[in-house]
């Protein structure tokens, strides 16, 4: 009885689903057919638009190629230099292009370097100044090649401009090639697309000598080879409707697509209205789709029937197996080691545990040998590395679970005896008093951190040695003057003593001067010692005090190189880092400015401005700046603009390592122009944002 009932339910379910599938298939085909047609129409529109765009680009490039080729002509250079413009005649060249290419209308214009038109292929008019045209003025001013689409007196045209240089690279003027859209329309016809190029009505009064002489209301038709039937079509159906098509429309057996043309200022110039007959669009895919959907529906019904039979048969067996394997499958699907434990013994684990401990084949063997995974933990003498011990009456798992906000780790030896590091995360199981512990291998990250620290240490050491060497040179310079004074005074006192003409007052003044200069020598050594013999630990210190100390350290260097250092600040704050590293970073920035100033500026115009406001430090010099092509690279390691004898490219890299990587602040280096004492200067600005 139960079997018959189950059979009846299956048959009834199948019939109901069959009806639903048939009805669903019908409505799906109807809806999908509509969507598919829209998709085909949209794809056709997109392909036409892309083809139109590519044809325009190709013509602009071809026009530019012609312009480039003509601008290299030596005879042209000679005519322009001799101002013998009557010899300019490109009619033969234009006829050859018309006969041997698809470009039937090419116009050529030559402009001298002052913006005066000296030749036009379509008219005898010349001598007028064309600098009112921004595109041509830009070519003459910047002397670069350019292309554009614009509306002029005659037509909507494509233009290419090329500067003219003679053999000695002297700038002589510009050559402009002007073409039309006829060839583009012809190319579109090759793929069964009829096009109308319509100039926006705002240009009605601009076009004073219309090339095609075709207007529809206020709209000018730019292509002569337009299909007359389409002219009548859009005239009858209101041209405004077609120029305002956002993408495409389908009507009267046509797919009508609109492609807008814009100038360099993104102002709308014209519209290319493309007409494709629907019969020329391949709709075979729609028919094939219907057949495929019907076949799929039949196959689906067959599969559905057998699926019902198999489902009933296997339902109970699968349910039992699923419950048994569910927990283990979840565990084994993870790439990390996952164990379920109470902190004292292991309850369950995934297969990754056996992959790591290769001396065991299954969980039971692991329990027999280790009991708990914590017995394999290695003591790393680090509070964040968990080991097997009592944590205030809690085992390791309970301790980690209670302190979820901390990043705990463990270390264990792998099959090769190498220490592997793992990140440890725990969570509590809901139904049982067990803890899920997840061990994620972070060995590579730990090793990389060690390598980075060693690299940073070597870089800082190398930079510090370089700085000390430079400073010793400056100290030696600073010592020379006091030593010279002491030597001169002592020699003078000796001679006057021998001649018995040394007066008591002069003797005392000389001694005072010797003592004063001796103190200068002592202060130099003291400053040097204090600057480089600081505590290597992280400490809290006054930002302004540390900055002034570094600036004072450079006093002798500033004096030697006639550099005026102007320091201004509006506030102070406490910085927490290694003070020696901070001083070293500021020293490296100043050293770069000093090097640039001594190599570029006269001695009476060398300035370094140090400004600290709103927790933003700016160190600016007037050394004319850094080449824009390399300014983005100056913070990279081993990149230097100095001679090999003056730098190895680590100074500014170490600045970035300290402020950006270690302290998390922002750095910006840029070229600036500014005014000082009513005089304009340019230089480099080094900005550190401590906010």
Describe this entry's structure for a reader:
The chain folds into five domains: 72-180, PAS domain (Beta-Lactamase, 2-Layer Sandwich); 183-280, Beta-Lactamase, CATH 3.30.450; 334-441, Haem NO binding associated domain (Beta-Lactamase, 2-Layer Sandwich); 444-522, Helix Hairpins (Orthogonal Bundle); 534-691, Heat Shock Protein 90 (2-Layer Sandwich), CATH 3.30.565. 47% of the residues lie in helices and 22% in strands. It has helices spanning 2-71, 74-82, 91-100, 134-142, 182-189, 228-236, 239-243, 284-332, 351-356, 363-369, 396-402, 443-498, 504-532, 543-553, 555-560, 579-600, 651-662, and strands at residues 106-112, 117-120, 146-151, 156-165, 171-179, 194-199, 214-216, 219-221, 248-251, 254-262, 268-277, 337-341, 346-349, 408-413, 419-428, 435-441, 538-542, 564-569, 574-578, 607-613, 616-621, 666-676, 679-689. The model is unreliable at 643-649 (pLDDT under 50).
N-end to C-end Cα span: 81 Å
Q: Quick one: CATH class of the largest domain?
A: Alpha Beta
CATH topology description of the largest domain: Heat Shock Protein 90
Discrete helix count: 17
CATH architecture name of the largest domain: 2-Layer Sandwich
Strands of the biggest beta sheet: in what spatial order?
7-8-6-11-10-9
Task: Provide a compact summary of the structure.
This protein has 691 residues and is an alpha+beta fold.
């Amino acid at each position: 009885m139960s079997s018959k009932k189950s059979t009846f339910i299956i048959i009834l379910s199948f019939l109901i689903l069959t009806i639903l599938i048939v009805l669903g298939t019908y409505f799906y085909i109807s809806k999908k057919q509509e969507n598919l047609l829209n998709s085909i129409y949209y794809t056709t529109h997109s392909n036409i638009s892309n083809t139109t765009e590519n044809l325009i680009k190709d013509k602009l490039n071809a026009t530019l190629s012609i312009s480039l080729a003509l601008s290299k002509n030596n005879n042209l250079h000679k005519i322009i230099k001799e101002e013998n413009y009557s010899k300019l005649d490109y009619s033969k060249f234009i006829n050859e292009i018309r006969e041997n290419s698809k470009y039937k209308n090419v116009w050529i214009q030559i402009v001298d370097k002052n913006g005066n038109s000296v030749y036009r292929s379509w008219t005898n008019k010349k001598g007028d100044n064309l600098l009112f045209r921004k595109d041509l003025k830009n070519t003459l001013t910047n002397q670069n090649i350019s292309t554009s689409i614009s509306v002029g007196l005659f037509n909507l045209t494509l233009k290419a401009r090329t500067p003219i240089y003679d053999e000695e690279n002297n700038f002589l003027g510009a050559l402009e090639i002007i073409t039309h859209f006829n060839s583009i329309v012809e190319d579109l016809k090759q793929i069964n697309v009829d096009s109308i190029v319509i100039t926006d009505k705002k240009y009605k009064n601009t076009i004073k000598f219309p090339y095609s002489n075709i207007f529809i209301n206020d709209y000018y038709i730019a292509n002569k080879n337009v299909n007359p039937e389409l002219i009548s079509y859009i005239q009858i159906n209101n041209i405004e409707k077609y120029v305002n098509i956002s993408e495409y429309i389908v009507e009267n057996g046509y797919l009508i697509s609109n492609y807008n043309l814009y100038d360099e200022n993104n102002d709308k110039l014209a519209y290319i209205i493309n007409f494709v007959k629907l019969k020329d669009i391949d709709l075979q895919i729609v028919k094939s789709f219907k057949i495929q959907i019907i076949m799929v529906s039949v196959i689906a019904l067959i599969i559905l029937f057998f699926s019902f039979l198999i489902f009933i048969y296997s339902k109970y067996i699968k349910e039992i197996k699923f419950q048994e394997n569910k927990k283990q499958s979840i565990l084994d699907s993870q790439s990390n080691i996952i164990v379920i434990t109470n902190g004292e013994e292991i309850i369950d684990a995934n297969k990754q545990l056996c992959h790591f401990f290769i001396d065991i084949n299954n969980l039971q063997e692991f329990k027999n040998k280790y009991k708990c995974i914590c017995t394999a933990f290695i003591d790393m003498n680090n509070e964040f590395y968990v080991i097997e011990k009592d944590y205030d009456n809690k085992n390791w798992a309970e301790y980690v679970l209670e302190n979820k906000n901390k990043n705990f780790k463990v270390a264990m030896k792998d099959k090769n005896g190498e220490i592997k590091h793992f990140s440890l995360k725990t969570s509590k199981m809901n139904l049982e008093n067990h803890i899920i512990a997840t061990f994620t291998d972070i060995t590579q990250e730990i090793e990389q951190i060690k390598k980075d620290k060693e690299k940073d240490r070597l870089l800082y050491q190398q930079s510090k040695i370089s700085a000390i060497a430079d400073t010793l040179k400056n100290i030696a310079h600073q010592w020379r003057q006091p030593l010279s004074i002491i030597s001169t005074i002592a020699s003078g006192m000796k001679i006057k003593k021998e001649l018995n003409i040394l007066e008591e007052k002069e003797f005392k003044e000389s001694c005072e001067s010797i003592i004063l200069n001796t103190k200068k020598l002592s202060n130099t050594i003291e400053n040097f010692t204090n600057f480089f013999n600081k505590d290597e630990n992280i400490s809290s210190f006054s930002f302004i005090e540390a900055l002034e100390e570094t600036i004072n350290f450079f006093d002798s260097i500033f004096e030697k190189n006639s550099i005026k250092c102007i320091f201004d600040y509006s506030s102070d704050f406490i910085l927490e880092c290694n003070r020696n590293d901070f001083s070293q970073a500021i020293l490296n920035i100043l050293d770069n400015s000093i090097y640039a100033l001594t190599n570029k500026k006269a001695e009476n115009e060398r300035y370094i401005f140090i400004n600290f406001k709103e927790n933003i430090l700016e160190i600016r010099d007037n050394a004319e700046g850094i080449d824009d092509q390399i300014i983005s690279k100056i913070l990279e390691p081993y990149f230097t603009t100095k001679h090999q004898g003056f730098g190895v490219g680590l100074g500014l890299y170490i600045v970035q390592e300290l402020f950006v990587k270690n302290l998390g602040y922002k750095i910006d280096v840029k070229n600036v122009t500014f005014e000082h004492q009513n005089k304009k200067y340019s230089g480099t600005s080094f900005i550190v944002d401590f906010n």
